[in-house]
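Residues and backbone
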Amino acid sequence: MIKVGLVGYGYWGPNLARNFAAQPDCELVAICESQSSRIALAKAHFPGVRAVEDFQVLLDDPKINAILIATPVSSHFSLAKQALQAGKDVLVEKPMTETVAQAEELIALAKLSNRILAVDHTFLFTGAVQKMKEIVSSGQLGEILYMDSVRINLGLFQQDVNVISDLAPHDLSIMNYLIDKDPIAVKAMGVCHAGNALENVAYLHVEFPNDLIAHFHLNWLAPVKIRRTLIGGSKKMIVYDDMEASEKVKIYDSGITIKEGDIDAIHKVNVDYRTGDMIAPKLPHREALSVEAAHFLTCVRERSKPLSDGIAGLRVIQVLEAAKLSIKDGGSRVLLSKGSE
């Protein structure tokens, strides 16, 4: 039986509490929350779980094996560092930290103390993303040419991060998982309409070697909720629509063939179009957070590497940090350095 403590019972904390409490080999023993009204809710929802205001109580409890962190981004580094130093394994909500330097310090500390450090990139545990990984790895798509994603809705406006830091980690974690190559440069543009200096509409462009690109449209000020990603390959293409009740993933046998043409006719269109069948594979319907909780507990028990470990969290932070620099410099191209090994 693995015993866990949760810090943060705001927006995402209740979901973590519910899923970990439901795992057969796990006991949620304590919830830490600074707001008295949220503590009252935690006690009402989990009457057998100790609810406290002081995080040190969780750190000092020798029975607690792991700490779940679901607090504002600005507190992630400090809380995760304290938990690792106290000998606890850690699952931290995305994004892992505010800066690359903080992420690298947590990774080094986890390695030094032989602790598990995982980042809550929940979408990696969905049936849709797992199926896409299977398809990409099988070579069905051929060479990946581009990834194009739209993640927009009306709200929820955050108080401590912009729309890129809030929404892009979902798509960036999927990008890194599926493409499994290091990006080389980032461009970003965004605007703020709320008067708080935090961009609520943004466009993020990520470059890879060999003309592979990824583009993300992120928006808190849209009249509709859209969660759609296109992945283009040289053989086939994928449309992933998370708002679909069924058929979230569709594989299209569509593409182009470049014809060998006369060098004097280089400016003419030498492209043949190919349109074939569409297939929508069957996907499992288990809640992704439940799958992630079970996976994290297995990693804690077996001391194995999480699917979304500290390195995965760092790769996302590298792009987010570069995006901030790009926006400040009017959308300039920011080169990325290679991440930690």
Summary: The longest strand covers residues 221-233. The mean pLDDT is 93. The longest helix spans residues 310-328. The chain is about 35% helix and 30% strand.
